[in-house]
Design goal:
InterPro entries: GH (IPR017853), Glyco_hydro_2 (IPR006101), Glyco_hydro_2_AS (IPR023232), Glyco_hydro_2_cat (IPR006103), Glyco_hydro_2_CS (IPR023230). Belongs to the glycosyl hydrolase 2 family. GO terms for molecular function: beta-glucuronidase activity; carbohydrate binding; signaling receptor binding. It contains 6 helices and 11 strands. The protein is an alpha/beta fold. It has one domain: TIM Barrel. The strands form 2 sheets. An 8-stranded parallel β-barrel has the order 4-5-6-7-8-9-10-11, surrounded by 4 helices. Strands 1-2-3 form a 3-stranded antiparallel sheet, with no helix packed on it. Strand 2 and strand 3 form a beta hairpin. It is globular and about 55 Å long. The termini are far apart.
Length: 269
């Protein structure tokens, strides 16, 4: 069983902390093709990391992945391909009806996997828009009707005060990249910014929070002291600053952290 309180995520009645990663179905050898051997390798690496969870960013993964999660005891935030909803014109009735049909397909396919503990209906939509509020409310309500036994969320990068979809989720999932996509190089700001982020979200919504994305890129073998962006030292220092705050807040209302990203993947760059 899965349940949510004001400050906890419960699995079988016991508090659970998501300690894991985001992934992509991509690899240097096969690209986006499915490969059973790489799947086993990935899950052995997840076990080695001590991970207990991941999010299927930003689409449903192959069913074999969920079968492995069931076998390994790794829980899943199952996300639909609701990514890129960045413009006002995307929040229309045609998109809404299609989005709800997609959620029906995802829930129908994956609902019998015990590893799936929460549905995510979108990644980083423009949830500060007025039209997004109604749109997300309808998709979330529809998903809850399809499966009343699991919590529903979406992953936001909007400001807590402006987010129109947050009132309808069961768990707040927040992406933030302090000292990476903003305040470049200023590692000393992370603890204050992250603490403020968590406190504002919780004070406003009184719901458990997952840090659903955070991290920094690094080039293997690139070193500099003091740390410079893209060095291994900078990545390590950034994560350490995040972990100070996460370790404090997990005693209160933060229920998980998912680093971006598990492994390198192909981009347009």
């Amino acid at each position: 069983t899965v349940a949510v309180t004001e400050s906890q995520f419960l699995i079988n009645g016991k508090p659970f902390y998501f300690h894991g990663v985001n992934k992509h179905e991509d690899a240097d050898i096969r690209g986006k093709d499915f490969d059973c051997l790489l799947l086993v390798k990935d899950f052995n690496l997840l076990r080695w990391l001590g991970a207990n969870a991941f999010r299927t960013s930003h689409y449903p993964y192959a069913e074999e992945v969920l079968q492995m999660c069931d076998r390994y005891g790794i829980v899943v935030i199952d996300e639909c391909p609701g990514v890129g909803l960045a413009l006002p014109q995307f929040f229309n009735n045609v998109s809404l009806q299609n989005h709800m049909r997609v959620m029906e397909e995802v829930v129908r396919r994956d609902k019998n996997h015990p590893a799936v503990v929460m549905w995510s209906v979108a990644n980083e939509p423009a949830s500060h828009l007025e039209s997004a509020g109604y749109y997300l409310k309808m998709v979330i309500t529809h998903t809850k009707a399809l499966d009343p036994s699991r919590p529903v969320t979406f992953v936001t990068n909007s400001n807590y005060a402006a987010d129109k979809g947050a009132p309808y989720v069961d768990v707040i999932c927040v992406n933030s990249y302090y000292s990476w996509y903003n305040d470049f190089g200023h590692l000393e700001l992370i603890q204050r910014q992250l603490t403020t982020q968590f406190e504002n979200w919780y004070k406003t919504y009184q719901k458990p929070i997952i840090q659903s994305e955070y991290g920094a890129e690094a080039i293997v073998g690139f070193h500099q002291d003091p740390p410079l962006m893209f060095t291994e030292e900078y990545q390590k220092s950034l994560l350490e600053q995040y972990h100070v705050v996460l370790d404090q807040k997990r005693r209160k209302y933060v229920v998980g952290e998912l680093i971006w990203n598990f492994a390198d993947f192909m981009t347009e760059q």
